């Protein structure tokens, strides 16, 4: 058995290194790991890398994604996608070429390594020679493995080339679709421009027509103005003023005659009733309007004295003949209140078992301008009236000093300076109505029950203030879901 010295081994290593071509480039700085399988077959240990899928899997995945997104992508996006995939296929083709070059370099390297081992085998003997022969067989097995790998690379190259052709064709189709859609869009834009142009022409024509018509209207107005100026020049201003004064005088005369006509009609109705009933004993005197008072007077010598008779006033609805007694109205004088507007008033006089009836000729009329006055007062949060207390809880009030009666949206108050006589919110127990009796001053007085057991009779400065206070308080109370009326008037 030949012994190899260290010097001889170093020389052999130097010869092996020098015999390898310098043009060979190694993919890594170490040889791959192999193992001996059955029948002395050289097997390469597989490299498992789960993070790096194979080229086929990548191509299949990209193809499936393209097929899924083809339906929801626009034509332009699809074309750009195909262009990207085409560039990726070209890149894969370039990588396959590089692998082919590396494979050729591997064949050259294995050939040179085998030649070096053959040269070494001739110089060695014994156990070292067997090792060299095993190395030579391993090199030959690597060559076979490399040839198989080249076949797989060729197949992959063919598939990549096929995919590249498919993507190139798809890209061309997408470009055709893009150009077709662009042509359609251009045609639609041109048609839209034509429509807009037609609309613009129509609007210009309409504007011209409108300007012509306006010009004609202006000319007609100018002619009318000139004609009016001529008419005004012909008539002197003094004559126009005289005509206006005459018109005003005529209106005043017509108003006075209408009032006089109403009075005559009422007197005529009274006279007709007197003729129909010659035996009547009493009659009503006074204006049948809100703000005045009605008085029962005897019209026959046989009529008993009113002081010895019992009197009761009633409200008669214009829709029905039902009589509604007015609580507390048992005097010969009665002043209508806002609740009586639109109703006929009737009074029954009973003496010694005999009853006489008097009634108004028509419904009580509203006072002129009272509604507008109340609407003006409602714009204020609180309205004040100057009053004098005539009675307190049914007893005459000795002092006649002026008090202030406040009518608010939520309550009413009676005070004098800082002293408050009564202050109550709107409740069901509160009562407010005109005074039912009391002589000629009844039209200016009202009855106010702030709460049970606490009442006043207030005299106002005018009939309008008294009626306005009643109407205003009833409207505010109605907003609080309270019906404000006199005794027994809610029924």
Automatic annotation (TrEMBL):
One of its GO terms (molecular function) is actin binding. Residues 189-216 form a coiled coil. One of its GO terms (biological process) is regulation of stomatal movement. It comes from the Eukaryota. Residues 282-379 form the Stomatal closure-related actin-binding protein Ig domain. CDD domains: Ig-PH_SCAB1. Keywords: Coiled coil. Residues 101-268 form the Stomatal closure-related actin-binding protein coiled-coil domain. Residues 55-97 form the Stomatal closure-related actin-binding protein actin-binding domain. The keyword NAD does not apply. It holds the Pfam family SCAB-ABD. Residues 382-489 form the Stomatal closure-related actin-binding protein PH domain. The keyword Zinc-finger does not apply. This is Stomatal closure-related actin-binding protein 2. The lineage of its organism: Eukaryota, Viridiplantae, Streptophyta, Embryophyta, Tracheophyta.
